[in-house]
């Protein structure tokens, strides 16, 4: 065996070690990369045999990285990331103008989807696949070219972000519900069923505070994972919901939802287009970014 091949372990062994090092568990590593616990153990043993030293301390049925394992993991992680980036770049070159964009589900359905015909007309060669994602992720680990992020830029470190827009969140309910429950002032909502989006449980306390209402005794109501589920519940008469106005414009225009108080809730959080620092080297990403920024103008 040549000297160069001797020190190049099989990729399965490297992937097994990298996952096991992060989880400090052979079984969880196996679940992540699609191997059995015993197969991961064999791959780790292969590496340890090559290095001639253990990488984990075995404590009963548990494993823990030892000093040699930690040093190896620190050096290995950037190399594996470089392989992922190189492979991803090669796949992009093969795909040409194909893009994969991660988007917040409601944003994708109500803001992006209606605008796709314009994107196709402007860039007919672009083929864009959209997938729903609600939380930040590692672009080096995921097959996405860009993503829609809502929040603050510092919540997703290590990526480039373009500001898109902020939102106005308004209270809405069904017209029939409002007729049966007349509201004269914001304080009257304290006794109403208040619907929330599950990741924004603080929205109602913030709205009441902005309206000058003491809501210390506020009782939490039903929560929904996505805004469009929340909108459907409100339109069905389940109560009053706080929803970004741009997501429910069709319901407002159709009259299936109404705004009892024109008191929008604003915040510093906003929508951003997020992407890796080197993403604009891909002309397809640059074209999609330019289109997005033109749309928000």
UniProtKB/TrEMBL annotation:
It comes from the Bacteria. Keywords: DNA-binding, Transcription, Transcription regulation. Belongs to the LysR transcriptional regulatory family. The lineage of its organism: Bacteria, Pseudomonadati, Pseudomonadota, Alphaproteobacteria, Sphingomonadales. It comes from Sphingobium xenophagum. Residues 9-66 form the HTH lysR-type domain. This is DNA-binding transcriptional LysR family regulator. GO terms for molecular function: DNA binding. InterPro entries: LysR-type_TF_proteobact-type, LysR_HTH_N, LysR_subst-bd, WH-like_DNA-bd_sf, WH_DNA-bd_sf. The keyword Oxidoreductase does not apply.
